[in-house]
Amino acid sequence: MRMSPKPVQTFRDDFSYSNSPGAIARFPFPFPDDEYRYSVNIEPHVTPGPEGSVYEFLLDIDEHYLSEMAERAIVLEENPKRCLAMPHMDLACWDMIERCMRSLAADYPQHFSLSVDGDQWTWQNRLLNIHDSFTFGDSSTLPLPPMEYMGRQVQGDFALLDQRDGDLFLDAGIVTCPADWSLAFDAGMSFSEWHGPVPLAHEMGVFERALKYLTAIPVGRPVRRLNWTLTVNARMDTSPETYPNWGTDRASVTADNVGEKVHLRVELQVLDRMPRSNALMFSIRTYLISFEDLVTNPDWARRMHRVLKTLPPELIEYKGLGRYHDLAVEWLSRFDPAN
Amino acid sequence: MSIDSIAVRVAAIEPVAPLIREFRLEAVEGGLPPFSPGSHIQVAMPGEVREIRNAYSLCSDPADTTGYTIAVRLQENSRGGSQFMHTRVRVGDRLSITPPANFFAPVWQARKHLLVAGGVGITPFISYLHELERQNAEFELHHLYRGTQTGAYCARLQQLGTKYFGYDSDNEVFCDLNQLLSNREPGTHVYICGPEPLIEGVCATARELGWPDSLIHYEAFAAPEPGEPFKAQLARSGKAVEVGSDESLLEALEREGVTVPNLCRGGVCGQCATQVVDGAVEHRDDFLSADEKASGTCIMPCVSRAAGNHLTLDL
Amino acid sequence: MQIDPSIKSRPKYQVPVLVGSARLQLFICEPAARDQLMSLHQQCEPEQTYWLEVGDPVACDSAAESCTFEGLAACLQRRLAGAPVATRLYVAGSEAFLWDVRNQALAAGLVDEQIQLAPPVSRARRLFCTHCYTRMEGVETSPHRCSGCGRLLLVRDHFARLHGAYVGVQINAEDPNEQPEQEVLQ
Lengths: 339, 315, 186
What we know:
In chain A, 29% of the residues lie in helices and 21% in strands. Chain A is built from 13 helices and 10 strands. Chain A has helices spanning 21-25, 65-78, 90-107, 146-151, 183-186, 191-194, 206-215, 243-246, 258-261, 291-294, 298-309, 313-318, 325-333; strands at residues 43-44, 83-85, 112-117, 120-125, 130-135, 157-164, 167-174, 223-232, 262-273, 280-290. In chain A, strand 3 and strand 4 (120-125) form a beta hairpin. Chain A is globular. In chain C, the strands form 3 sheets. A 5-stranded parallel beta sheet of chain C has the order 3-2-1-4-5, with helices on both faces. A 5-stranded mixed beta sheet of chain C has the order 7-6-11-10-9, with no helix packed on it. In chain C, strands 8-12 form a two-stranded antiparallel sheet. By secondary structure, chain C is α/β, with parallel strands linked by helices. Chain A binds chain C through residues 81, 182, 184-189, 192-197, 199, 202-203, 240-244, 246-248, 250-251, 317, 323, and chain C through 1, 4, 6-10, 128, 130-131, 133, 151, 156-163, 167, 169-170, 173-176.
């Protein structure tokens, strides 16, 4: 079933965020096996994918749209540097605007519409009451810089990667719901630099192979992968910037509250070649589900237990799960018949 | 959206030089995607023996989504592609193309772009010119050509004024590479497209003059060179494929209905990498590292061939 | 928490080697790092070389040309205007200084292949507070108290070339009562 945006819920303070049964059913559960290991798990993002799934379209607009856009506005209000674009990325930003607007208008005509007359464009976003006309390619005709303008209307974080010398550089982005990385610090880094802190994978040659694959992605053939971690409370903004606000959450998990506190956080990452600039658009769409909701699916419950139980210590530390990993495994074990 | 091929109609054919024809291609339905300067497409042609697929640079305005232009030079040793385009294709014909891909994009941070074209190698730069002018970027175009044969575009290029430098060797006007590359300021990037000797000449001169490699860019891929015939044994399907001297291993596999993912058909993109089970490889690609080539376990069938008379592949 | 020794963003430095084919050899150093470049400088043709010391005027007194940190960008711009593509730049000093010069050289049109950074003269790091974006110089121990927001920062090995800095993250954000021991950075 297709998801309609519901009224604003919160990803902070009282954490009123919740998943409807429909949202639980379409949750992108990321584990193909009982044991999690690194791999270059990239596959073609062929659209339209299965109807109603998170893979149906290039950009997934779901019941949390208004909530996530409200959360993004709060983060940018607190810290405008969570969005940036280096000057040589201007054409790439317009590529992103074109790709997003055309996709949204085609895939969700009830919410978005676009009319194009030469370089005179008119964009309507009925969910956010936006109705703007502008000259395509001329940033001065937009009410905000192009990256921020588009980024405030799409769920998930976005980065634009400049491709040069056979490498990819993180030269523009809007990052308000990251799994513990900072755009302000990582800006301008090469592919292997910004993955610097990831343990184990470098030695396995994962990034070298991934980079060769990614630099050869052609126009019109996006690819995707899933990544995951755990987050305590339904908090979207788990950035290093705000870590002092959410670090203590990790110490708040007890045997009694695992189900409601601990969330599986899944990123649907899509890489899409931008036709005009040759940049890569990297979208990171985050889905959160509480363990309570997750175990309503017995297959997921059993597998989640086995994945966590066999997770290598380096990954437990890297993902910041040390304080509550044992509690989570213990709580999940009751759903695994092997125990 | 996911596109593997786009059906196009030949909207116009224009001879621009004795050996060069320009083809304007328009989508059978809707428009075409915009592209980045230096992009190429593959054109699939229904040849008599097998389907012929050639890569051609796009030489129209990258922002023009109503049609693409490619320029095809009739090759003396044509393996079928350029001959087909010149003799068989008529206005109104339908062809199939891939979406644009790019291994020769401008460096957007460059302070100045120095474009060096040899003959029909001018084509990718035509798309550069549109975008560089739109962005008001600093550039110079140096065009080496033979006026009697491939002097295409000269009249159009003259309009660039002081940014255009033409060298017609039929008129005894030659380009002094040393002079061209001397006294350039930091932040100048040089881009070369043309015959192999020109690419090698510019690269060698630039390096002698102390240019760092990251400022030197060239369109590396070329049509596969012919070689000795050999037999490819396919370990998994048990098939045996004879590879003729004038076709690539990839083309021979496709002729036999074996699908291998591919993109550039020129040894650059790495998409067609195939595991080698047995046999020595003559590597001709720019994708595999020296170590990978030495190990002999992988081949890029779009350009590389057997070093002996057989290869066994994991297909 | 242990500092991960394998972080790939941490730069590796090598003793500079003279590139003979260069037409202009630029040497830029802090006075304390003079010795690292002097012998290379002396091997160059005098008309193709340029020596610049950056720091306070007293320390730079013996240098033919010097400027302050503040004046570096303008000085570099001036020197590189009209310089040949075959320019090579050799830099020596503290780690943060190396990357400041490198970034300004990039802004002036050079690329990384033209720049060699000598091993830093000390272990002192520039630290970027990921919470308030304050940059602190000369950090030698971890954790380090942020001069901007007052938080106690774990100094990580993750390095950003554009900032010339390592990232600092609050060390006891999960349990503010934790009092971690201080260690000397390697």
